[in-house]
Amino acid sequence: MTTAQYGAIAVEPFGDSAVMVTVPHADQAVRRAGIAAFRDRFLAHRPHGVLDVVSGLESLLIEFDPLLTALQHVEYAARLVARWAPSPSDGADRPRAVREFAVPVVFDDETGPDLASVAGELGLAPAEVVGAIAESTFTIALLGAAMAPMMGGLKVPWPVRRRAEPRTDVTPGAVMIAGTNAIIQPFPGPTGWRVVGRTPHTIVDISRPDPVSFSTGDIVRFVPVTHDEAAALEGGFLLPVEGSV
After folding, report:
1. pTM, to two decimals
2. Which has more pLDDT, 2 or 26?
3. CA distances (Å), 4 to each of 32, 60, 81, 83, 114, in order?
4. Rounded distance, CA 58 to CA 68, Å?
5. How is residue 104 annotated by DSSP?
6. What is the spatial distance between Cα 73 and Cα 155, in angstroms, rounded to a whole number?
7. Is 22 left (phi over 0), alpha (psi -120 to 50) or beta?
8. What is the pLDDT of residues 210-239, one digit of tens each?
9. With 70 as the cut, is the pLDDT of residue 95 above it?
10. 73: pLDDT confidence band, cut at 50, 70 and 90?
11. CB of 39 within 8 A of CB of 21?
12. How far is the C-alpha of 84 from the C-alpha of 92, rounded, in Å?
């Protein structure tokens, strides 16, 4: 997959030491796939003076040191990378195969305090929301704060709103949705996403050589389980489905 097939990228100044890259296209799926392909390619061919990148579902913020390079140089480099640079998947450093994950989740009022309000917003029963989540196939688009897997693919009648008032402390393992996206909370923290359930698995373990077992492009499905079934799995590190590695 190459960015070039989606047409030109858009590069806009973002302050005096960053640019924002997007893929202009009417199709959301194309925009997301295009920016992910560009991100992988840009990181494999990082230009001089670039300090960091911040991934969004449909954008990539490129931060640079203005003492080492200039905005127009970074913009030019980004356009060159998008048009000409080979993708990492084209060479010897080909990324690993896509992994599949079946994530057990307890969905109820205790673990999913926003489940009822999401159901009301969508005009569905809570069980129907759970069914929609379980029947959706999610693809990890990026690793967010604290390596939280942010994924798209939620199949609901229309996008789910974020909370008007963010929660200040969400427990690890919380499964949350917003728009047509989902994310799993690795550590305690605030969020404006709607909490609909909780997985007993440990998503991120910084004591391990590889703190996470997933990466962008991997496939996730949520599997409803009971409290008793979750208790038997509590604390286990999330691993891919056997045979998908």
Report:
1. 0.79
2. 26
3. 14, 16, 10, 6, 41
4. 27
5. E
6. 41
7. beta
8. 999 998 889 999 999 999 999 999 999 999
9. no
10. very high
11. no
12. 18
Q: What percent of the chain has pLDDT over 90?
A: 70
User: Rounded to an integer, what distance in angstroms lies between the CA atom of residue 224 and that of residue 229?
Assistant: 10
In sequence order, the 6+-apart residues with CB closer than 8 A to the CB of 118 are: 129, 160, 177, 194, 196
Q: What are phi and psi of 230, to 5 degrees?
A: -65, -40
Q: Is the pLDDT of residue 153 over 90?
A: yes
Residue in this structure with the two tokens 């199709």, named with its chain if needed: 27
**Closest alpha carbon to 203 in 226, 228, 174, 225:** 174
Beta strand pairing call for 194-198 and 174-178: antiparallel
Locus of tokens 């009022």: 109
Q: Give the Å distances, CA to CA, from 180 to 41, 149, 161, 193.
A: 26, 14, 9, 11
